[in-house]
Amino acid sequence: MKKIIPLIIIVVAFVFSSCKKDEIHNTDTKVGISDVTVYPVLTMAGSPYVSIVKGATYTEAGVTAKEGSSTINVTTTGSVNINQPGLYVITYSATNKDGFPATVSRTVVVLPAHENPGVDLSGKYDYVAGGYTSTVTKVAEGVYTTDNVWNAATIIPVVFISLDGLTISVPNQNTGYGPIFGTGTYNPATKRLVYTLSLSNYGISNSNRNWQKQ
Q1: Which uninterrupted H or E stretch holds 4?
Q2: Which residues are bridge partners to 133 per DSSP?
Q3: Most buried of 40, 53, 153, 211 (most Cβ within 10 A)?
Q4: Are residues 77 and 151 in the same domain?
């Protein structure tokens, strides 16, 4: 027994010593030996999609940013020409103390006129050649988003305008495939939505894309 007891004491001491070495101390700024960064969180006031009629006043609702519980500065880029119908993107950015950025954006559409009462092209649309169903959502007066305007093989979301529910305008806007723009029609009798689009980066001009409302 006299030989065994010292051995047990040594083993216990070794285990205790190893546990002490592996302790991880966490703080607000560190987890063990790793630094902690808190990414900026941007909160947008108002809607991410806004429409105004040409000549009307555009009022910027603003964005706030926080790093944890601390308010940080927001940088705004982009502007709206209230006298020129079209699509304008306002981008808001904030950077935390470690240099990590975050951004959000608001799309402002200047309409040539007010839409006709009761117009709403929202709904599910099947690509006529098959393979994809897009969702068209009305997001502001006269303004819609669709999660695909092209075809089943190439997914291109865009914003488009319709004031009368019959004619469509796709204002020039940037996508993952470059700038896209065009016109279109909706036929209430057949429930057919036809986009005539140009995708300049791919040398495509006036290509018709047909969608059937469910």
Answers
A1: helix 4-21
A2: 126
A3: 211
A4: no
Higher pLDDT, 167 or 12: 167
Asked if pLDDT for residue 117 goes beyond 50, the answer is yes
Looking at the structure, do residues 74 and 129 belong to the same domain, yes or no? no
Same domain membership, residue 137 and residue 106: no
Closest C-alpha to 155, from 137, 177, 173, 139: 177
Structure token digits, residue 139: 């997001």
If one counts the domains in the chain, the total is: 2
Question: Domain residues for 98?
Answer: 41-111
C-alpha pair distances (Å), 169 with each of 18, 67, 99, 183: 70, 40, 40, 4
CB-based contact 69:94 (threshold 8 Å):
no
- Looking up tokens 């002490």 gives 20
Please count the other Cβ atoms lying within 10 Å of the Cβ belonging to residue 70. 10
Q: Do 107 and 142 have their domain in common?
A: no
